[in-house]
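I'd like us to work through together how a protein chain folds, taking it slowly. To get us started, please write out a protein record for me. Go ahead whenever you are ready, and we will take it from there:
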Amino acid sequence: MQELPEPVLENLPERTSEQALEVEDAGVEIRSRKFRMAMVVYLILAALIWFTVGEGTFLAYGRRVEIRAVPLLIIGLFAFRTWLAREADKVRRRSQTE
């Protein structure tokens, strides 16, 4: 087998603090854009559920529940989980910079 060459790391230029901040700002912008897109997708899915699922009801724990409430609840939980993950990421990044 042929051996792979070792990566040369000593020739790489050092990043200045300004360049590091620019990279970090770009990462924050990308994450923010992804979050907004995810929320838009959840909203579109919720609208599709609302207009396509029938208006029937079923009995759950002695209460009448609309059928469309179940998938809406699931989409809402996914949206909440996405928001919660974003907030946790913000806290983690803030604690790393301090």
Notes: The mean pLDDT is 84. The helical segments are 17-52, 69-97.
